[in-house]
From TrEMBL:
Keyword check for Transcription: yes
Organism whose genome encodes this protein: Rhodanobacter aciditrophus
NCBIfam families, alphabetized: HTH_metalloreg, PRK10141.1
SUPFAM superfamilies tied to this protein: Winged helix' DNA-binding domain
Name of the protein in its database record: Metalloregulator ArsR/SmtB family transcription factor
InterPro entries associated with the record: ArsR-like_HTH (IPR011991), HTH_ArsR_DNA-bd_dom (IPR001845), HTH_MetalResp_TranReg (IPR051081), WH-like_DNA-bd_sf (IPR036388), WH_DNA-bd_sf (IPR036390)
Length: 117
């Protein structure tokens, strides 16, 4: 899929996808179990949305054992990255509860062992 403005905004048009993308932008990288906890959604629903974001070209993933970690695609066009950055930074209340749940899991090394280990 070509990342043109129509496809970009269609990918962001769902609340779960947008919140997941913003969290990944803030944290640099998250796994499915971290997003399940932060977004309070089922694992299949989170995985489906992450697959859509990957198909849109907004995310890339890496496997480590049985776990998959997602990050913002480094090849995003500058305009798309800027929209994501401004949307995330200028709207902290949109992901405030999600970030609180994520951080209640502890710091990243401990969090990874408890949910991804």
């Amino acid at each position: 899929m070509t990342l043109d403005p129509i496809n970009f905004y269609k990918c962001l048009a769902d609340d779960t996808r947008l919140r997941a993308l913003m969290l990944i932008f803030l944290e640099q990288e998250l796994c499915v179990c971290e997003l399940v906890e932060a977004l309070q959604e089922s694992q299949p629903k989170i995985s489906r949305h992450l697959a859509q974001l990957r198909q849109c070209g907004l995310l890339t993933d890496r496997r480590q054992g049985q776990w998959v970690y997602y990050r913002i695609n480094e090849s995003l066009p500058e305009w798309a990255e800027l929209v994501l950055q401004i949307s995330t930074v200028e709207n902290p209340s949109y992901t405030e509860d999600d970030r609180a749940r994520l951080h209640s899991m502890g710091d990243r090394p401990a969090r990874m062992q408890s949910c991804c280990g």
